[in-house]
Amino acid sequence: xxxxxxxxxxxxxxxxxxxxxxxxxxxxxxxxxxxxxxxxxxxxxxxxxxxxxxxxxxxxxxxxxxxxxxxxxxxxxxxxxxxxxxxxxxxxxxxxxxxxxxxxxxxxxxxxxxxxxxxxxxxxxxxxxxxxxxxxxxxxxxxxxxxxxxxxxxxxxxxxxxxxxxxxxxxxxxxxxxxxxxxxxxxxxxxxxxxxxxxxxxxxxxxxxxxxxxxxxxxxxxxxxxxxxxxxxxxxxxxxxxxxxxxxxxxxxxxxxxxxxxxxxxxxxxxxxxxxxxxxxxxxxxxxxxxxxxxxxx
Length: 298
What we know:
Distance between the termini: 62 Å
Radius of gyration: 28 Å
Helix content: over 70%
């Protein structure tokens, strides 16, 4: 009886010691994972920090300091020169107007297409979806020539309106599929209740369905903003004869001369162009993550 009691006590006494020993490798593994993620994060952030650091240096210091992030002498006047002397304020205004108009067109067009494809069954629906998906495999460069030719025929070349239509007139298949996945999960009764209240197609869509798609719309807004803001070739072609309509991506060429490049001004301009992207992502990051997570779940 005594032996049995002793045999039942020893494992209970050893359990905390074993648990403690098991915690040590777990803590070490957790610290190693944290250290690895910190190193990866630093590698990912370093180019951004280097550009930000170069924007406060002069051109000689950029190459002399190598990978050092701390400038020997701070030159905040690089930002003033890039903003006013290089005309970056006008480029920034053009980018804001063109990007905002493109986002509105893309959201309305893709949300409507996704809603119709998700909620209605009609002849040719599968063919439309097949063509949409097939366009994802066509290189973007092939669309530039026909888009420019069509814009020239319509008298829209070298205009902001033509550039907006060219930027927002792409397939945007990913946005259509995101909206399709979201609208297909909404209960039919909600739509039927709106119809009973006398709402037509447009009222049901704009007053009921579209407001419900906040996370998906935030995702589409961020993706369209990045694609439009950073686009280079289409704005270059559409503003070749009208430099006053250039966007920030094309405006970077103003810092490159025939025989020299203003690297400090270019770094300052690049830092300025990153500010709207960071601000929009910080503003919509929660909805952006929800929209991406919902798309992956679907």
